[in-house]
């Protein structure tokens, strides 16, 4: 008899515990991640960025139905939807809707377009880092323009040669950075909407007007990234060096590892 009463008491306690858990689940939205190494969670930095996005966020994926890529993208976005319920995801099949693909400027299967208010960003790499960077740029607002001085043999922001910066700028585009060519032989000053000017190793001598425009840009509080190669002291950049208070030291730094890699 005592054993039977103990069993009934255990069952009653289990029922009470189950009812309590059911009630709490309707009152509180706390969830736990029991996956290996918490793979279903996102980083605290990503959560903080999501909290800055108060308005609805729409993600459109231009992805073919076959191959399992849609399932991968859905699972990836679902981790973020746990922390932002008004984050929506929709798919467009590029094969059945080529007009939408052309209008959106889609370049690869699986490309994402993130829309937040009147701002949008394209994402071609699916990773937590790239997605969080895109979210941060949407929260910050606006596209950042980097003006590349051109016309005197500088490294190209669009080229793919070893010395060019095209691959780097392609990665920066995912973070809302856009390259803007700046030929100071054609315009007298740096555009006021530029966030940064890059002078990337010119091969020919800059005109006095071009050097003066860069000095004036610095006087006005502009940002400048100056990349230079050995033997460039004769390229008319002395006014720029004086403005910055810098001088080139003699000699060269050689990286044996890079030389061996070609």
TrEMBL record:
SUPFAM superfamilies recorded: Class I glutamine amidotransferase-like
Domain ABC-type uncharacterised transport system: 146-256
Pfam families cross-referenced by the UniProt entry: ABC_transp_aux, DUF7088
UniProt cross-references to InterPro entries, sorted A to Z: ABC_transp_unknown, Class_I_gatase-like, DUF7088
Positions of transmembrane segments: none
Residues covered by the DUF7088 domain: 41-104
Name of the protein: Uncharacterized protein
Organism, scientific name: mine drainage metagenome
């Amino acid at each position: 008899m005592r054993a039977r009463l103990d069993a009934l008491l255990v069952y009653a306690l289990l029922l009470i515990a189950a009812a309590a858990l059911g009630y709490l689940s309707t009152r509180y939205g706390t969830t736990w991640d029991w996956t290996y190494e918490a793979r279903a969670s996102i980083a605290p930095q990503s959560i903080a960025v999501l909290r800055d996005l108060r308005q609805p966020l729409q993600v459109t994926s231009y992805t073919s139905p076959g191959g399992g890529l849609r399932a991968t993208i859905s699972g990836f976005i679902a981790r973020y939807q746990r922390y932002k319920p008004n984050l929506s995801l929709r798919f467009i099949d590029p094969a059945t809707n080529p007009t939408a693909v052309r209008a959106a400027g889609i370049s690869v299967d699986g490309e994402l377009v993130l829309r937040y208010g009147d701002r949008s960003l394209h994402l071609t790499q699916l990773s937590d880092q790239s997605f969080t960077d895109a979210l941060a740029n949407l929260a910050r607002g606006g596209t950042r323009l980097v003006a590349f001085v051109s016309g005197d043999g500088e490294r190209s922001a669009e080229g793919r040669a070893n010395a060019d910066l095209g691959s780097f700028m392609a990665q920066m585009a995912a973070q809302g950075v856009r390259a803007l060519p700046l030929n100071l032989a054609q315009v007298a000053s740096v555009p006021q909407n530029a966030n940064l000017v890059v002078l990337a190793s010119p091969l020919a001598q800059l005109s006095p007007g071009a050097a003066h425009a860069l000095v004036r840009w610095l006087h006005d509080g502009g940002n400048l990234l100056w990349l230079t190669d050995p033997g460039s002291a004769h390229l008319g950049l002395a006014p720029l060096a004086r403005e910055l208070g810098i001088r080139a030291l003699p000699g060269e730094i050689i990286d044996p590892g890079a030389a061996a890699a070609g």
